[in-house]
Design goal:
single chain; alpha+beta; four-stranded antiparallel β-sheet; two-stranded parallel sheet; 11 helices; queuosine biosynthesis; QueG_DUF1730; 4Fe-4S
Length: about 300
């Protein structure tokens, strides 16, 4: 067995030990297919006020500009599908935000994975990325065979659906590379038909500036009045295009205790949300991604949902 295969097998086994759903590896280099797509998307203003999407255009497309002598992109998926969901008829938050902020949870696992690689193999340089640096997570995960990019622009897997986080290690080590998988969306348009704000403007293309997640998390201004009545009670994020996706029939509950919700979260009624105080907000969303909006932002969203 050559070293590349041995190292790759070791990395995948370690990823599994650390609780990752799956791990795929691709050769670091320029993402030729994504470059014109990203440029067109930005030119058309599909990113709304997410100005940061315009930054580091070259680095987004080429990991060798992020990590010296980068050879491989190790893509990892971590399940966050919850065992229990919120009470019906309440204001809703995206399932990924039920537990502790994934950035911290995954970063720790990635650090441990890199440490294991260095202990086993020797001097390996690299960096861990969790959705907060200019890396096209979904493109790399698809390139390494972990799934295909669906019509809702999420990474989809036949085995586990799409309720998972994507992260990567970019390292200066030659490995055995995985091949891409095929697209299994077929003629299905469930996500396009179900999107409350018609943000999926054509198959595989999202207008980010029309997405409920954008309005409730990224947008700092007032939510445009023409969107009133279209949010389907989503107060933070939105899962509609994932909830209706047939492949998510195969989602299984995660086994990461840190992603379990605060005991009070699932039972909050609309009245509870309406009356939420700073103390309750801090207690229920301690270390949660929901803290991004602060209480003030959450209240803005809830007020917008009222008839």
């Amino acid at each position: 067995m050559d070293n590349r295969k041995r190292y790759s097998d070791f990395i995948k086994a370690e990823a599994k030990r650390l609780g990752f759903l799956s791990c795929g590896i691709s050769k670091a280099g320029f993402l030729e297919e994504e470059a014109p797509r990203l440029e067109k998307w930005l030119k058309e203003g599909r990113h709304g006020q997410m100005q940061y999407m315009e930054n580091y255009f070259d680095k987004r497309l080429d990991p060798t500009l992020l990590v010296d002598d980068a050879k491989s992109v190790v893509s990892l998926l971590l399940n966050y599908y919850p065992e229990e969901k919120q009470t019906e008829g309440s204001y809703k938050i995206s399932k990924y935000a039920y537990g502790q902020d994934y950035h911290f949870v995954i970063k720790e696992k990635l650090k441990e994975l890199l440490h294991s690689i260095q202990q086993e193999i020797g001097e390996v340089g690299g960096r861990a990325f969790v959705d907060s640096a200019p890396v096209l997570d979904k493109a790399w995960a698809a390139k390494s065979g972990l799934g295909w990019i669906g019509k809702n622009s999420n990474l989809l897997s036949k085995q586990v659906g799409s309720f998972f986080f994507i992260a990567e290690l970019i390292i200066d080590l030659d490995l055995e590379y995985d091949g891409v998988t095929t697209d299994h969306c077929g003629s299905c348009t469930a996500c396009i038909d179900a999107c409350p704000t018609q943000a999926i403007i054509e198959p595989y293309v999202i207008d980010g500036s029309k997405c409920i997640s954008y309005f409730t998390i990224e947008l700092k201004d007032n939510i445009p009045t023409e969107m009133r009545g279209k949010f389907d009670d989503w107060a933070f994020g939105c899962d509609v295009c994932q909830d209706v996706c047939p492949w998510n029939r195969f989602s299984k509950p995660h086994r990461e205790p840190l992603f379990n919700p605060h005991p009070d979260l699932l039972s909050l009624t609309k009245k509870d949300w309406d009356e939420i105080t700073e103390d309750t907000f801090r207690a229920v969303f301690k270390n949660s991604a929901v803290k991004r909006t602060k209480l003030e932002g959450l209240k803005r969203n809830i007020n917008f949902l009222k008839p």
